[in-house]
Write a structure and sequence with these properties.
This protein is mostly helical and about 160 residues long. Helix content is about 80%, strand content about 0%. The model has no long low-confidence stretch (mean pLDDT about 95).
Length: about 160
């Protein structure tokens, strides 16, 4: 790999991690207070699991983005894929702000469905540029699919 490629990968991973950090700003204070008092679905994972899963997903997302960008920023399909990726990344950070920051489980449920659709569109657009990059988004899509069920469970149990 060239130094430029490694730098691109690192920057793309840091971009994704930054989205997670933004979301964590609302999450930190809410977990021991508001979130701890919620009724949780039976299939809710322990809190530590989120701290393990999300960094892995952000790394995979960053590598996928770097692969797509490496195909050439002068290509229209790369620019479109990168733009949609940016939208879904913003939606990713927004979910935590809505759920944990605003304590709006209902709005968060709507938002996470929109996020899921944006991830699906991103994976499709990445596939058109790099099948490997698209495949790297599959765990993210699966985790957010699970998170939709989890969010719906919180909504049902905490009217």
């Amino acid at each position: 790999m060239h130094a430029v490629s490694i730098l691109r990968i690192i920057l793309c991973i840091l971009l994704c991690m930054a989205a997670g950090w933004i979301g964590s700003l609302a999450t930190r204070d809410a977990i021991p207070q508001w979130y701890a008092g919620l009724n949780k679905p039976a299939f809710s994972p322990p809190n530590w699991a989120f701290g393990v899963v999300w960094p892995i997903l952000y790394v995979l997302m960053g590598v996928a983005l770097a692969m797509v960008l490496s195909a050439g920023m002068d290509r229209r399909e790369v620019l479109i894929a990168a733009t949609v990726f940016g939208i879904q990344l913003a939606l990713n950070a927004a979910w935590s702000l809505i759920f944990f920051g605003l304590h709006r489980i209902d709005w968060a449920l709507v938002e996470i469905v929109v996020l899921w659709l944006a991830i699906l569109m991103t994976a499709y657009l990445f596939y058109r540029v790099s099948t490997v990059a698209a495949a790297l988004l599959v765990p993210y899509l699966l985790w957010v699919s699970f998170a939709i069920g989890l969010n719906a469970g919180f909504w049902r149990l905490n009217p």
